[in-house]
Design brief:
about 240 residues; 8 helices; alpha/beta
């Protein structure tokens, strides 16, 4: 699949994977609309790319999302990359942070899908790409809020795929592992197979070209989480429980 001549809306493009992916898609010839809450970073990024413009949006605000979608208009594809994260164990429960992760990571995606899907269905064409996480496959220590948000987003993508199978709208789910960003810098533990944003963007570009419904990476690391869905609960808990 060539991105030459296509227009894509990237939501969550101001830093990390979103920024690296915008740069990679621009090299491939895509026209880009770049969105996030931080308009200053967006403008700085858009000015470095040949065919991109910045459009600030807050995915936690219904009016902001619907207004931005109306301004964006018809696009070939939309990628949801917005996310927030705090490491949180049950013993350090923080309801405000847990709800914030659900609101951005899951409800933000639902707001965006609700704003763009009707138009795609009316045209019977379009691509929706949602960014999940290996943390969404099964419960992990220190993942209160974040894991639940990603599990919900992954289920949303899979439900959309089934419902839209007979239409011209395609939905893809990408599940990264650890990416070296401002958010993962909050972790106080070793992060196996951690990737740079550029490396992760290369993986996402490969997924876009393939058209696969779901791509999880890094491949070897993802095998543990994908296979883990088959583990008995007691065994999984013994493997991952913190003592």
């Amino acid at each position: 699949m060539s991105l030459q001549g296509q227009t894509w809306w990237l939501v969550g493009a101001s830093e990390g994977l979103g920024r690296a992916l915008a740069e990679a898609m621009s090299i491939e010839g895509a026209t880009l609309i770049l969105s996030a809450r931080n308009s200053e970073r967006l403008v700085d990024l858009a000015e470095t790319l040949p065919d991109a413009r910045a459009l600030a949006v807050d995915v936690t605000d219904d009016a902001s999302v619907t207004g931005a979608a109306a301004e964006v208009g018809t696009v070939d594809g939309v990628i949801f990359l917005a996310g927030t994260y705090w490491p949180m164990r049950a013993q350090e429960w923080d309801t405000g942070k847990a709800l914030a992760m659900i609101n951005v990571n899951l409800l933000g995606a639902m707001r965006l899908v609700g704003a763009v899907l009707p138009g795609m269905l009316a045209r019977d064409t379009g691509r929706l790409v949602l960014t999940g996480s290996l943390a969404g496959f099964r419960g992990l220590p220190g993942s209160i809020g974040y894991g639940a948000s990603k599990a919900g987003l992954m289920n949303l993508a899979q439900s959309l795929q089934v419902d839209l199978q007979a239409t011209g709208v395609r939905v893809q789910l990408v599940n990264p592992g650890f990416i070296r960003t401002r958010l993962t810098a909050k972790n106080g533990f070793a992060m196996p197979f951690i990737q740079s944003p550029d490396k992760a963007a290369t993986e996402v570009m490969r997924a876009l070209r393939s058209g696969r419904p779901m791509t999880s990476f890094p491949m070897v690391f993802s095998w543990l989480f994908r296979a883990g869905r088959l583990f008995p609960t007691a065994l999984w808990n013994r493997i991952f429980a913190r003592r």
